Amino acid sequence: MLSDSELYEAIRSGSTLRDAAISQLRAMLVRGLSKSLTGRYRQPFNADDIAQEALLKILASIEQFSGKSKFVTWSMTIAIRVGIGDLRRKYHADQSLDSFRTDDHGRMELPTATILSEGNDFTNREFGQLLQKLIDCELTEKQRIVVRSFLSDYSTDGIAHAMGLNRNAIYKLLHDARMKLKIGLESHGYGPDDIASFLASGESIK
Amino acid sequence: MKLTIEQTTELKSLIRSVTDKDTLECDGCFDLMSEYAEAMRSGKQLGSAMLAVKAHIEQCRCCRYEYEALLVALEELETNSQ
């Protein structure tokens, strides 16, 4: 069994130990992936296939390894992303694309019960109406589509794929939308505690 | 699209928890995740770069999910090496 630094050197330098090192790393990836990803997203998963795909990525990008972590940890990080990416693609393939519709301009309606039910007191109704107004007026159409897709259980990866953007861009759209809503609520005097208590009664109305 | 009560509750949580302190994007977080995982597992004090990863993971559900999966995998490797 090679140590972490021996493993890295053997794979990078192409020494006579290279094949053995790759086999050792593959076995470690399979073990880690099997433990951590089995059952996630309720999708079938083949750790051997993912480890093989990850190994190709690791070998292709080995020069980017900075040595600030163990080589195995760095490799496992890549394998986890490959594996979760694969599971997310399968999971999203079965999901409705309804949240990506653009013909309704990304309309996102809060539940009527939340805003209008007599079970809610005036403050909650006022809060709900304000939040609805902020969603309608402050968010761009693209931001609304990202937010409602995210709330429909899409990952940022899945949204990026469906919208032809990258994951960083989706994260930024989502983050900026959240900030706009938070700032909008704060400018009307609603702080974090108000946001937490809002819906406290609405949640019981079904 | 009409949001369900559950989706509205999640929206509330997304609004409430967001901060302007997240300076990383997902790719930047990924580049530092192995280092961050080792720092967290060893209880090392976090420098500014690692604190940025922490802030991003707290804000980003997808990166958090990957980080948590990584910790499980690393734990498995450690258990098996003992």
Keywords summarizing the entry:
heterodimer, A: 206 residues, mainly alpha, Rna Polymerase Sigma Factor, Chain: A, 2 domains, 10 helices, 66% helix, elongated, disordered C terminus, B: 82 residues, 4 helices
Walk me through the structure.
Chain A is mainly alpha-helical and 206 residues long. Chain A has two domains: 4-93, Rna Polymerase Sigma Factor, Chain: A, CATH 1.10.1740; 99-204, no CATH class. Chain A contains ten helices and no strands. In chain A, helix 1 (4-13) crosses helix 2 (18-37), helix 2 crosses helix 3 and helix 7 packs across helix 9 (167-187). Chain A is elongated, with a radius of gyration of 23 Å. In chain A, 40% of the residues are buried. By secondary structure, chain B is mostly helical. Chain B has one domain. Chain B has four helices and no strands. In chain B, helix 2 packs across helix 3 (48-59). The longest helix of chain B has 21 residues, at 61-81. The model of chain B has no long low-confidence stretch (mean pLDDT 92). The chains are: A mainly alpha (206), B mainly alpha (82).
Low-confidence regions of chain A: 200-206
> What is the SS-derived class of chain B?
mainly alpha
Work out the radius of gyration of chain B.
15 Å
Number of H/I helices of chain B: 4
- In this structure, how is the largest beta sheet of chain B organized? none
